[in-house]
Amino acid sequence: MHEHAPAPLPSQRLTARQALAAVTDAYVELTEGGGEGSRGPGTPEAAHPSAAAPLPGAPGPGTPEHGPQDDGPLGWRGYGASRERARARTGEDESVITARGTIGGAEAIVLSFEFGFLGGSLGERTGDRLEAAYTEARERRLPLVSLIATGGSRMQEGMRALTQLQRVARQSALNRAAGLPQIAVLRDPTTGGGWATLGAGADVILALPKAQVGFAGSRVRPPDADPAAYSAEGQFAAGQVDAVVPADRLRATLQRWLRLLGGARGLPHDPAEPATAPDALGAADLPETGWDAVGRARDARRPRAESYLRAYFDDREEISGDRCGGRDPGIRCGFGHRDGRTIAFAAQCGTATRPAGFRTATRLVRLADRLGIPVLTLVDTPGAANDADAERAGAGAAIADTFAALASARVPVTSLLIGEGGSGGALALAAPDRLWATPDSYFSVIAPELAAAILKRDTHQVQETADQLRIRPQDLLELGVIREIVGRR
């Protein structure tokens, strides 16, 4: 494959081939049988991607599966003619193009939907192409990138079209089980079953600004529905999308994600090397009293998660949201590059962690575990959010799931206590037997103030209570709670 000429930016209304060319260096189109057919722009075989001949015995671009009078499995009158008009208008014979391409030098299987072909709808032949592409990704052990623009299932094929969603879901599950990453790009529109399988089922979900995104398309929503809820920005706010990426930054963003996840080996494999604990960035000396430890950890001038992440990683990308309707800006999760390898991270930012934050961290740990990537957690919270909204959002269940994710992780997890260690909300992100601490941190079963209140002690006894709880880093080391106290380099 060779580099092709610069393509238009992948705005929402590009054709499938324009979108494909906008994000790839070069690509080779796949046939429905899973082999390779025509090549994308810049390759010597074809000036136009559909010009080269397909592999023997396999249908190629521009070769109709049915004649123009074939009205499909339901005998829907005029369906064959509609397909013929769509073919003439778009130059495509189906709603999706599948290809093996390179993005920033990283190989991937890429799917690109043609909305101009019957609204990018999924029919039986679409399912054939998608299944072959997923299979190709497994056989070559490549990540899969979907450039989605679809209104959902093709009603002219009825239930035969709808059941393609089960087919796609199974293929996605097989690639997930094989430890292969899936990245979705939501173009305009991404609705119906395409959103509920290829989109929402991906590991990383990127959306173009102002794209229409939702299970319900524009013509089937309640008349009083808030349109913002069906937008890329609304889905990001609701924790369903990881990032809204401007069109001129999409290609570079995909390059970074493939650099981070493209080499994932999945499990089982030889155990990954654990992430090293970061160096301390704050105070170098140890606190004299328990209350001193609390004061230093709560000091607004103490380095927080952002400082540690910036110092630790050469490059990083973040996921956002719990995929259950929530986001917590008080936790940062994602993948970063350090010393030539990828490490996943979940970092508390010093605020009370909300249920959505725990669920996002759980999602991160389980994705890293599936891809065989070691994990680093930074612990820093006064505790789990305890307001009524947090209880209604399932705080207990969210914390329990985070405990379970770390306890069952097959990849090594390294944890560093960088500030406040407030009870179970902090412990949920602390790796069992692999916890380090900085000199300006503390870890406590309960905040000293609350402990004094429960014990009905006067406020002047709070400091004494802090000492009794033995919460200083040196206390934690003596008690066997942490492995070491990290120093400054």
From TrEMBL:
Family, similarity comment: In the C-terminal section; belongs to the AccA family.
Q: In which pathway does it act?
A: Lipid metabolism; malonyl-CoA biosynthesis; malonyl-CoA from acetyl-CoA: step 1/1
In terms of Pfam families, this protein maps to: ACCA, Carboxyl_trans
Location within or outside the cell: Cytoplasm
Q: Which Enzyme Commission numbers does its entry carry?
A: 2.1.3.15
Domain CoA carboxyltransferase C-terminal intervals = 246-489
Q: What does this protein do?
A: Component of the acetyl coenzyme A carboxylase (ACC) complex. Biotin carboxylase (BC) catalyzes the carboxylation of biotin on its carrier protein (BCCP) and then the CO(2) group is transferred by the transcarboxylase to acetyl-CoA to form malonyl-CoA.
The alphabetized UniProt keywords are: ATP-binding, Cytoplasm, Fatty acid biosynthesis, Fatty acid metabolism, Lipid biosynthesis, Lipid metabolism, Metal-binding, Nucleotide-binding, Transferase, Zinc, Zinc-finger
Q: What class of enzyme is it?
A: transferase
Q: What is this protein called?
A: Acetyl-coenzyme A carboxylase carboxyl transferase subunits beta/alpha
List the source organism. Answer: Streptomyces albospinus
User: PANTHER family, from UniProt?
Assistant: ACETYL-COENZYME A CARBOXYLASE CARBOXYL TRANSFERASE SUBUNIT ALPHA (PTHR42853), ACETYL-COENZYME A CARBOXYLASE CARBOXYL TRANSFERASE SUBUNIT ALPHA, CHLOROPLASTIC (PTHR42853:SF3)
Q: Assembly and interactions?
A: Acetyl-CoA carboxylase is a heterotetramer composed of biotin carboxyl carrier protein (AccB), biotin carboxylase (AccC) and two subunits of ACCase subunit beta/alpha.
**CoA carboxyltransferase N-terminal domain: which residues?**
1-276
Q: Where is this region: Disordered?
A: 27-93
Presence of the UniProt keyword Lipid metabolism in the record: yes
